[in-house]
Task: structure prediction
Amino acid sequence: MSENFKLIVDTREEHQHQGSTTACMITKLNELKIPYSKEMLPCGDYIIENATTGGKCVIERKTIDDFVLSVLNGRLMQEVEKMNEIYSKSFLIVEGSWSDFYKNRAKLKKMKYIKNINSFTVGHRLGVMASISARTNTKILQTETQEQTIQLMISLASKLTDGKTFRAPEFKRSKTEEKIYLNVLHSFPGVSINKAEKIIEKYPSWQDFTKHISAGTFELEGFGKKSIEMFKNFVIGEKAKV
Result:
């Protein structure tokens, strides 16, 4: 396990959920020899802490039954709101099989395990997930087993602390003069990347291009009078602004 991060488990997990799936999660962590520490957390079940910067993100893990129960009694949104108040990055991991849940719904109703369970339709579930995703900073992730949840948490921890960020393709990010020239040409209506590259091949710089456009000496197969007039109007307009 990487030394770039620390995994912190809420101290109440082990004491308040003996015999539950949460206690089993702690057992799994021990079995897999994944190091963690215990603290009383203000919210959530787990914290990933960047060992270098000290930055933290929170994870709330719920089995599907607990997710449904917390939606119907209103507890879930309170938990999400609190995570967003305290931490800049938060995750909600929903663990289990939805197909199994709906198959067993009649049994759960008979046991009175979850009141109003029939009101929790697929549409209701998707609506709740959409609401959290669109209106909060919490990301919702789905796993099927405890093993997958642990694997996902470790993967999250690794990617949150490796110092890397998402980068767009080089074409959009590059600051080189040639790429900027290419981007400008490609921004003209009807000028594809291939056409822009043909212009650059004959007129290697923006200065060459504008000089020949202004002088009326621009000639290139595939570019008719309308295209040249469009270029000329732009170039003359830009010069007039200077």
